Amino acid sequence: MNRRRFMLAGAIGAATAAAVVALSLTWTSPGLAESQPMALPQDPDPLVAVTAKGDVSFRIEVADEPAERSMGLMFRKDLADDQGMLFVFDQTQPVGFWMKNTPLPLDLLFIGEDGKVRDIQQGEPFSEAVIAPDEPVRFVLELKAGTAGKAGIKDGDQLKHRVIAEAGVANPG
Predict the structure, then answer these.
(1) Whether residue 88 has pLDDT greater than 80
(2) Same domain, 89 and 13
(3) Phi and psi (nearest 5°) for 131?
(4) Same-domain pairing of 153 and 84
(5) Integer Cα distance of 63 and 20 in angstroms
């Protein structure tokens, strides 16, 4: 009987040690870095929305690389009212977003190559439902939920930024 208890205690000890090693590897593995929010540098130029209420400026981060667009605002827990992320695609194309791993509710503004807002949709935290406009777009601007409404941004409003202007010049209509 004592030998059986000793073997059981040894097995439990070995399992506990293995669990500690596994946890320590998890804490230092690249997987942990993937669950951290990405912070891109703030673009020096503000993005300006031209609305019926007047011009509204936003400080933005520009996500123009595939890895940046893939990560977006995932894991972000806060975003200032005047802050956003502009997703820049290489060409006008159908796009779809989801909110997996995104704890903030967001406004997603789908923007044509000409800088005009084509659609505004809401993103629910942690949802895997696809959020997509009915037409191809070149840009998407993510803002904290409710910001577009408070700023008076509507479909058809013009957004101005150096990146949007450069896209129009590169592909004149």
Answers:
(1) yes
(2) no
(3) -110, 115
(4) yes
(5) 38
- With beta carbons less than 8 A apart as the criterion, state whether 98 and 128 touch: yes
**88 domain-assigned:** yes
Do 98 and 24 share a structural domain?
Answer: no
Q: Mark whether 83 and 166 lie in a shared domain.
A: yes
Is residue 120 within 8 Å of residue 108, measured between CB atoms?
A: yes
Give me Rg for the CA atoms of the chain: 23
Domain-located, residue 40: no
pLDDT digit string, tens, across residues 48-81: 999 999 999 999 999 999 999 999 999 999 999 9
Mean pLDDT of the 103-119 span: 98
Q: How many domains does the chain have?
A: 2
| pTM given for the model | 0.79
Q: What is the pLDDT of residue 168?
A: 74
Strand partners, 140: 87, 110
Between CA 163 and CA 103 the distance in angstroms is 28
The CA distances from residue 151 to 49, 109, 131, 132, 135, in Å, are: 9, 13, 22, 22, 24
